[in-house]
Design brief:
Layout (H helix, E strand, L loop, with lengths): L13 H5 L16 E6 L8 H16 L5 E4 L7 E6 L17 E4 L9 E4 L4 E2 L6 E2 H12 L27 H11 L30 E2 L22 E5 L2 E6 L2 E5 L11 E2 L13 E4 L5 E5 L2 E6 L2 E2 L5 E2 L12 E5 L4 E6 L2 E6 L4 E2 L5 E2 L13 E5 L3 E5 L2
Parallel strand pairs: 1-2, 1-3, 3-5, 6-7, 9-23
Antiparallel strand pairs: 4-5, 4-8, 9-10, 10-11, 11-12, 13-14, 14-15, 15-16, 15-17, 18-19, 19-20, 20-21, 20-22, 23-24
Helix pairs in contact: 2-3
GO molecular function: metalloendopeptidase activity; zinc ion binding
Organism: Stichopus japonicus
Cofactor: Zn(2+); Ca(2+)
Length: about 400
């Protein structure tokens, strides 16, 4: 029987790869403030509204007990963390699969959909019960992602990538505490507790448009199974490309293929020429256009591949893009506006692929304009259509 999988293949963060000796993993972004608002957009029919409110409030309280963070319920559509229940396709490009598979997914801190948590309403959620899928436990895990935590390699940790089963004891384990305090510090003595949720039901608004991608995986729901072996990634990868359902990780002239369970497929790594015919160079950066074209940067040139074949007229020089530089460090597409962003040194450009030129007013400094990424990123892991993760060199 196929093991229930995470909500999405994890866009692996190179920072976490270089920190493999640390058990917890950080997403590379965090909230820049300590008082966060949250909104329950709608409710599951499995539970009374007050039970949902209680589960979410307790899940957030589990994190605020160990940090200076406070969480304030609101009915505002501008809440930092939007929480909703949905079935199948629900507007973010990552459909749920119904009962028995994906439980939920959450987005790391950031603008737009960043920080939001979505729960699969095809599951049977329960309240203070060891049966079914305990909403409090799943929410505590997902909201850990919303605060900036990745998955932990410690099996007993809340942030381990599989469902642990409900317990009446503390769900936040020492490894979780170390991770969250690395991001936000310790809780000051005598700090007030979180406000309790407003008992009034929230209206059902339209979904927020223009989602920002990369929901992090959720725990599969079958306790007792051994977790799959995860690839040991001590080296730094320079780029990545997500081609559903695989994530291709590039280092030098070598590429790894990671499957939807977070494991390196048998027979990998291989030479880059396996996926891009005739390409025998180091990949510096890569992204994918809306038509499926992979744009590969290497040194002072770039190549466009449709499938495995190089398009006619390539390679071309990086300088021909009109950026005024000879090479790039990273390139990603942001789904919110469909624009491509190029990074070189401490500057970035917004590029219009349709007009084949950078937008006016660029380059701009990375620092102060892109929250949560290094001032001079050396690598980007990117799903060319939908998401990105940056790292230092």
């Amino acid at each position: 029987m196929k093991r229930p999988r995470c909500g999405l293949p994890d866009i692996i963060d190179v920072n976490s790869m270089k920190r493999r000796k640390k058990r917890y993993q950080l997403a590379g972004s965090k909230w820049g403030k300590k008082d966060l608002s949250y909104r329950i957009v709608n409710y599951t029919p499995d539970l009374a509204q007050h039970q949902v409110q209680d589960a979410i409030a307790r899940a957030l309280q589990a994190w605020s007990d160990h940090t200076p963070l406070t969480f304030r319920p609101t009915t505002s559509s501008n809440a930092d963390i939007q929480i909703k229940f949905a079935r199948g396709s629900h507007g973010d490009g990552y459909p749920f699969d119904g009962r028995g598979g994906t439980l939920a997914h959450a987005y790391f801190p950031g603008p737009g959909i960043g920080g939001d948590a979505h729960f699969d309403d095809g599951e049977r959620f329960t309240h203070r019960s060891v049966t079914g899928t305990n909403l409090f436990l799943v929410a505590a895990h997902e909201l850990g992602h919303s605060l900036g935590l990745g998955h932990s390699d410690v099996e007993s940790a809340l942030m381990a990538p599989y469902y642990q089963g409900y317990t009446t004891s503390s769900v936040i384990q020492p490894d979780d505490i170390r991770g969250i305090q690395q991001l936000y510090g310790r809780r000051p003595p005598n700090q007030p507790t979180n406000p309790r949720p407003d008992p009034r039901p929230n209206p059902r608004p339209n979904p927020r448009p223009n989602p920002r991608p990369n929901p992090d995986p959720v725990p599969p729901r079958r306790p007792g199974q051994e977790p799959p072996q995860r690839p040991e990634c001590n080296q730094q990868f320079q780029a990545a490309l997500f081609i559903d359902p695989h994530l291709y990780l590039f280092q030098g002239k070598t590429v790894w293929r990671v499957n939807e369970n977070g494991q390196v497929d048998n027979g990998w790594p291989k030479q880059v020429s396996v996926i891009f015919t005739g390409f025998n160079r180091v990949v510096d950066a890569i992204y994918r256009k809306a038509d499926g074209t992979a744009v590969v940067f290497s040194g002072n040139q770039y190549y466009e591949y449709l499938g495995q074949r190089l398009k006619r007229g390539f390679p071309k020089t990086v300088r021909s893009l009109g950026l005024g530089v000879d090479r790039l460090d990273a390139a990603v597409v942001w789904a919110r506006n469909g624009k491509t962003y190029f990074f070189s040194g401490t500057q970035y450009w917004r590029f219009d692929d349709k007009r084949k030129r950078p937008d006016s007013g660029y380059p701009r400094p990375i620092e102060g304009n892109w929250r949560g990424i290094p001032a001079a990123p050396a690598a980007a892991f990117a799903n060319g259509e939908e998401g990105s993760s940056f790292s230092n060199s």
